[in-house]
Design a protein that fits this description.
Pfam families: CBM_4_9, fn3, Glyco_hydro_18
Protein name: chitinase
Largest sheet: 9 strands, mixed
Strand content: 25-35%
Number of strands: 29
Domain GH18: 273-606
Oligomer: single chain
Number of helices: 10
Keywords: Carbohydrate metabolism, Glycosidase, Hydrolase, Polysaccharide degradation, Signal
Shape: elongated
Radius of gyration: 29 Å
Family: Belongs to the glycosyl hydrolase 18 family. Chitinase class II subfamily.
Length: 606
């Protein structure tokens, strides 16, 4: 006991001498810095802020601690890596740790200046801690830490990632939450916001109903693409190199009433709730041919299926009506044109639909683009149609390697299609009806994957419709995604949803009306569409396609989205009484099924 006391006394004396020597005080601050965690947002409580992920998102379950964790799913040649670069000190020792779940999950550091390190687990059915250490090189000031899974394995989770060692010279604390958030100008489709500046902030993130929708560098923003007469909640966070602040207090605003349809694309001429159907005009198949004049008045938009190209890349679209050998009851051209005029006189819209399962269209050149415009115009003018439906499927749309920003596409087939549609819209004016019918793979799948990915290896068609929809959102009358013939798709609850019930339609439509970060990038959000621009695509019968649901499930879907009742397990991010309606493949198959789909629509909307 006496010996211990003496040693403590000597140590105290040495410490006092050391602190009296100029320059030695740096030792105490360095010692304190050695205890710092220099990783930013390692618990993923601020989403993916400060992380760059190829296929990651945040989930609320399972978590190791707090309310969020990372979940990422390797696919193809992508190992679903999430990484961040942190500031470190040269010639310093660091310990990297984190908790993971899943198979073949890695945690590592690169750019150390000495030996890059990693730790991994073959199988972690529950949270398992991984840890490794490294020493930085003599000139190292930045190190990249990462976690990833392995090719072809399932999803993995990571949480509470820390890098403990001497702090770098940069900012070590996120800024404070913004104060003074208030609304400025409110219209039927937008809300202006302003707030007080935060010391140390380099930017701000704006949230609508809990979803990040915008990042700005100043202290004001305008959130657009909103529904008329709808209440929204807004929050703002401050951001710097150390991370993101807590959210501000919520400010609510209700958009003003619309003017009967809102936006372009001829939507003001449609009823508040519309029924859209495809009519087999160039073929019969098992549903048999239905004359246009025999389509019941319940159908508000009739898409003539299909106009198809002379070759995949020609851009030359031809509409060949069903031959009498296949359709014995087909009407003459004069009768067909008279039926179009009669439908229009009754307030209906008749469009030419381009593409379909067999009509692959790739506008690879400007010459093909121009041919597309002239040939489609010829069809519209010949039959006196109201507009155009784009039903590009298969390999019509894909993204070139390196084309990763849906707001600024560079792939020719995407850029040329956008240009062609804008030209047609400008030619025919405000009453021109433009609709699109993509598959879920090309739209909602973009929440997880976009194109071939930042490191390649993904299907380049993933999310390929997003740049087209975004560029034409002010001209788009209706988007009716095909919620059928689809594989499982991850929703905004970060759970996979499969066809066969209301849950799938609710989750897929919620994504369109809420918006979502593309490829999990919270700084690259696909904005929501107006509810009057959205109809839900469903097969009319079990013969029409995979994913048919009963009338009861259709009613559940509409109840949840327009009234927020009867929702089941999925929680939507809003309520949209202005949802435009339903689309089906097809009028012919619905007639074959004794008009079940039409009767369900009529019973619900009256």
């Amino acid at each position: 006991m006496e010996r211990t006391r003496r040693r403590r006394s000597v140590l105290a004396a040495l410490t006092a001498v050391a602190l009296a020597v100029p320059g030695i005080t740096a030792l105490s601050s360095a010692a304190r810095a050695a205890d710092a965690d220099v990783a930013v947002n390692g618990g993923f409580e601020s989403g993916l802020t400060s992380w760059t992920c190829t296929a990651g998102t945040t989930v609320n379950s399972p978590v190791h601690s707090g309310s969020s964790a990372l979940q990422a799913t390797p696919a193809g040649g992508d190992n679903a890596q999430c990484a961040q670069t942190v500031t470190v000190q040269p010639n310093a020792q660091y310990t990297l740790s984190g908790y993971v779940r899943g198979s073949y999950v890695y945690l590592g550091a690169s750019g150390t200046g000495t030996t890059d390190v990693s730790a991994w687990t073959q199988s972690a059915p529950d949270w398992q801690k991984l840890s490794t250490t490294f020493r930085t090189g003599a000139a190292t000031t930045k190190v990249t830490i990462y976690t990833h899974g392995w090719y072809g394995t399932g999803a993995y989770q990571a949480d509470d990632i820390t890098l403990v060692g001497p702090g770098g010279s940069g900012t070590t604390q996120p800024p404070a939450a913004p104060a003074g958030l208030k609304t400025t100008t409110v219209t039927s489709s937008s809300v202006g916001l302003s707030w007080s500046a935060v010391t140390g902030a380099t930017g701000y993130a704006v949230y609508r109903d809990g979803v990040k929708v915008q990042t700005v560098t100043g202290t004001s923003a305008t959130v657009s693409g909103l529904a008329a007469s709808t209440a929204y909640g807004f929050q703002v966070t401050a951001v710097n190199e150390a991370g993101e602040s807590a959210k501000s207090a919520v400010v609510t605003a209700t958009t003003s009433p619309g003017t009967g349809g809102g936006g372009g694309g001829g939507s003001s001429d449609l009823p508040a709730h519309a029924l859209v159907g495809y009519l087999h005009a160039s073929f019969a198949n098992g549903a048999s041919y239905t004359r246009l004049a025999d389509v019941p008045d319940s159908w508000d938009v009739i898409d003539l299926a299909f106009g198809e190209p002379t070759s995949v890349t020609s851009g030359d679209i031809r509409f060949n009506r069903c031959p009498v050998t296949e359709c014995p009851n087909v009407e003459s051209d004069a009768e067909f044109k008279a039926a179009i005029k009669a439908k229009q006189a009754a307030g209906k819209k008749v469009l030419i639909s381009i593409g379909g399962q067999n009509g692959q269209v790739q506008l690879t050149t400007t010459a093909a683009r121009d041919t597309f415009v002239s040939s489609v115009s010829n069809i519209i003018d010949t039959y006196g149609l109201d507009g155009l439906d784009i039903d590009f499927e298969g390999h019509s749309l894909s993204l070139n390697a390196g084309d990763t920003d849906f707001k600024n596409p560079t792939t020719p087939v995407i850029v040329n299609l956008i240009s062609a549609l804008k030209t047609l819209k400008a030619k025919y004016g405000a009453k021109f009806v433009l609709t699109m019918a993509p598959e879920t793979f090309f739209v909602q799948n973009g929440y997880q994957f976009y194109g071939s990915g930042k490191w390649g290896g993904q299907d380049p068609r993933c999310g390929a419709y997003l740049p087209v929809i975004h560029a034409l959102r002010d001209d788009l009358t209706l988007l009716h995604v095909q919620d059928y013939n689809s594989g499982p798709i991850m929703g905004l609850d970060n759970q996979y949803h499969s066809m066969g019930g209301a849950d799938f339609h609710i989750a897929m439509t919620d994504m369109l009306l809420t918006g979502f970060p593309v490829a999990g990038d919270q700084n690259n959000v696909f904005p929501p569409l107006r509810p009057d621009q959205v109809a839900i695509g469903m097969p009319a019968s079990t013969n029409a396609g995979n994913g048919h649901v009963s009338p009861a499930e259709v009613t559940k879907t509409l109840d949840c989205l327009t009234k927020k009742t009867n929702c089941g397990s999925y929680t939507t991010h809003g309520t949209w009484p202005a949802l435009r309606g339903l689309m089906t493949w097809s009028v012919n198959w619905d007639r074959y099924a004794n008009w079940e789909f039409q009767k369900t629509f009529d019973a619900y909307f009256g």
